[in-house]
Amino acid sequence: ASQWGRGRNKDGEMYQTVTEGLQSLYTKKLLPLEETYLFHDFHSPALEAADFQSKPMVLLVGQYSTGKTTFIRYLLEQDFPGMRIGPEPTTDGFIAVMHGENEGVVPGNALVVDPKKPFRKLNAFGNSFLNRFICSQMPNQVLQSISIIDTPGILSGEKQRISRGYDFAEVLRWFGERVDRIILLFDAHKLDISDEFSEAIKAFKGQDDKIRVVLNKADQVDTQQLMRVYGALMWSLGKVINTPEVVRVYLGSFWAKPLQNTENRRLFEAESQDLFRDIQSLPRNAALRKLNDLIKRARLAKVHAYIISYLKKEMPSLFGREKKKEELIMRLPEIYTTLQREHHISPGDFPNVAKMQDMLQHYDFSKFPSLKMKLIESVDKMLATKIAVLMAMIREEESKQPPAMVSGGAFEGSQDGPFGQGYGEGISAGADTEDWIVSRDKHRYDEIFYTLMPVNGKITGVNAKKEMMNSRLPNTVLGKIWKLADCDRDGMLDDEEFALAQHLIKIKLEGYELPTELPDHLVPPAHRKNPTADALYNHTED
């Protein structure tokens, strides 16, 4: 980007920010292609300024009573306007929980006319949807960096699906294309994937990189049952999400009540920290996600243009149009194969055949536009050159001013202090005690030390190596332990250094990581720089 100034591209356009760059590329290059070939009628409405400028969004999907609304409450640590929680299906609509100076609820019909919110295109789903869509606004630190969307609990029966009055899976698909994270919640107690749920998951096809799975209420079963539930969950998901990769599943109990089964407490702690880290990284990757989604969209738009123009080309000029149309719709799978060969496109870029055949019934093919290579070339050029410029800008923007991590709510309490993950364990054990923690086991280590024939109170590297090899740790790890333990770098170990080496081996064998530098509380008393500390530890000095 540097050769044309800050983010300036060959046409001399200037982008101040990545967001602005994305928006300008979309409106100048991709939108004309989409409009010409009726992309918006077939696939997804046009993007607007708010789509590019909105905060990262997290979409929560799950059957009723899996704890979706409670999960939001757990993250925010306060109630949000319009929330209802209960064992029966309570949240019967979509709630967008967003940041606002004043607490309050904005109804759906008002939401879809607000140009500042990314929801304007939802008016296409009609009144029965808008009556069940609200935006809940409140001042909350977590919401300054992300917005959360709560969805209606998915029901197990067939009857409810028909009575919703709007196309639930389509609405989910619309959100799936625009959010940064899709969290599927399951209840460890009643694990089943109903038809509607599996349709909902299938609506996220192509968004697999955004999906994370949470197995909630995992403290209500014991370890053996949890293993079984986890296995059953993976088995069921494998049949619905058709990807070779395994989805990431977080186990835990995501609410602020005491755990019912504490045997897996450490597992739940580690899992919830992982999930928090995943959500916290969203603002950092938001620009990249928007770029990624734009590329996905551009590829689909290109394929769509090829399909539409091909159908137009095949139409007879005067007679037999209806017959030809039926034949073309029947032959759509073959047409896909022809286009794949002709334009070297992978099959994965093509839209769903059955759905496309269904929609094509309602159009007059002879009115379709023919192929305009100029439009396609301009999108190709955008993908080849402009996107790379924006990638460089994203990195540059990040290094200059990294976006803030999500903070506040449940993201606060767990990092520092005695309840932080790993506090007082492994390498940080003994950080807040008066004595040198190694001295507690030093008498045991001393017995081994004196069998290794010390000379002038020190043992050689060769003798120490024999003893350290008994731990069966690989040489790379033992080498690191040696570096940490040999404080005075003399290639030999005195009794304190040897005890320290044994302590580090014990930490490593317990499965904790080793630091690159020795923390102060582990430095042997005889090797401390600070004389007052020496006086504390070696009472022999006068």
Automatic annotation (TrEMBL):
Q: Where is the EF-hand domain?
A: 473-508
Q: Molecular function terms in GO for this entry?
A: ATP binding; calcium ion binding; GTP binding
Question: The organism sits in which domain of life?
Answer: Eukaryota
- A GO BP term, please? endosomal transport
Q: Where does this polypeptide localize?
A: Cell membrane; Endosome membrane
What InterPro entries does the entry give? DUF5600 (IPR040990), Dynamin_N (IPR045063), EF-hand-dom_pair (IPR011992), EF_Hand_1_Ca_BS (IPR018247), EF_hand_dom (IPR002048), EH_dom (IPR000261), EHD_N (IPR031692), G_DYNAMIN_dom (IPR030381)
What is this protein's record name? EH domain-containing protein 4-like
Protein source organism: Echeneis naucrates
Designated gene of the protein? ehd4
